[in-house]
């Protein structure tokens, strides 16, 4: 008998068929389990959670996704505790039960420290405040030998020392020197300036922002200065003067045209008055001349 004599036996083929059948059944069961585990046949569109409260989203979708908080940020104008960024991105094709990584807007305000602004120029002091994440509340001018130099710094009505911890965005009152000549300031022309820049530019000019009137119901990014009081044609005013501002949407107003008209009006207002001939005659010294008779 040879080594391959079993190939002639019927029993061998029966056992082989049984083994193949069992292997097929095991493979089928395995793939079915994998499909169920990976949800291969269930694809969903990722919802957009940005801007929604993280805890509420986690509660409402806890059966569908596994949320993992990875970081928090401090963007301006965003609701604390809301989702700032998510992964997977909204609209992605995903399966239920997968991990969703979220970055939220920090609930605890971001902190900073108060810099020392004393004896700095107004422009430098404003720059240091901005780099520290602080804002100017208002400028208060006082008698002081050096004009536009910072005399003192106040927060909530009290002097504030260098190194004091504050919440970012806190507003600081600056006491500024008016100088021996009692500083006068020319009103800057801010017509067409975005609303987000108005206060800063007025502060840099030595003035304060007063009443703000928004004439359109539009996003702040499109609002620009339409009118100022006092306006650019007012000439020079006292340092620390408060300027009221009216805003209009750049979508519905041609600010280039407004600027041209304003410049034309200013040129008329500031145009020198014509000198009358009588005035010239009176101002000229007359000299007697003797003429020889040619006849």
What does this protein structure show overall?
The chain folds into three domains: 44-105, Trypsin Inhibitor V, Chain A (2-Layer Sandwich), CATH 3.30.10.20; 121-181, no CATH class; 183-272, Trypsin Inhibitor V, Chain A, CATH 3.30.10. It is 26% helix and 27% strand. It starts with 9 loop residues before the first helix and ends in a 12-residue tail after the last helix. The chain has a four-stranded mixed β-sheet with strand order 7-11-8-9, with helices on one face. Strands 2-5-3 form a three-stranded mixed β-sheet, with no helix packed on it. By secondary structure, it is α+β, with helices and mostly antiparallel strands. It has helices at residues 10-38, 54-60, 122-131, 195-204, 255-269, 277-283, and strands at 44-45, 66-73, 83-87, 93-94, 99-105, 111-113, 135-142, 150-155, 158-159, 165-167, 171-177, 184-186, 208-214, 223-229, 236-238, 242-249. It is built from six helices and 16 strands.
């Amino acid at each position: 008998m040879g080594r391959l004599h079993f190939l002639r036996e019927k029993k061998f083929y029966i056992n082989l068929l049984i083994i193949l059948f069992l292997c097929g059944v095991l493979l089928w069961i395995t793939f079915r389990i994998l499909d169920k585990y990976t949800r291969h046949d269930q694809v969903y569109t990722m919802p957009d959670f940005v801007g929604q409260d993280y805890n509420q989203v986690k509660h409402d979708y806890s059966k569908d996704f596994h949320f993992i908080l990875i970081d928090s940020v401090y963007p301006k104008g965003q609701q604390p505790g809301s989702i700032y960024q998510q992964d997977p991105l909204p609209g992605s094709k995903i399966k239920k039960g997968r991990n969703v990584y979220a970055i939220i807007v920090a609930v605890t305000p971001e902190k900073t420290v108060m810099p020392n602004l004393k004896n700095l120029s107004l422009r430098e002091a404003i720059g240091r405040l901005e780099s520290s994440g602080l804002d100017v509340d208002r400028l208060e001018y006082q008698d002081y030998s050096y004009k536009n130099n910072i005399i003192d710094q106040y927060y909530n009505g009290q002097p504030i020392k260098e190194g004091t911890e504050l919440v970012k965005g806190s507003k600081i009152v600056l006491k500024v020197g008016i100088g021996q000549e009692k500083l006068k300031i020319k009103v800057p022309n801010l017509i067409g300036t975005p609303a987000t820049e108005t206060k800063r530019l007025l502060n840099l000019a030595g003035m304060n922002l007063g009443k703000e009137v928004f004439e359109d119901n539009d996003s702040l990014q499109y609002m620009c200065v339409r009118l100022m009081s006092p306006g650019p044609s007012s000439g020079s005013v006292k340092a620390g003067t408060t300027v009221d501002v009216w805003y209009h949407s750049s979508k519905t107003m041609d600010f280039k045209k407004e600027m041209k008209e304003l410049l034309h009006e200013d040129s008329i207002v500031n145009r020198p008055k014509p000198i009358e001939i009588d005035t010239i005659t009176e101002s000229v010294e007359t000299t007697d001349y003797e003429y020889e008779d040619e006849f």
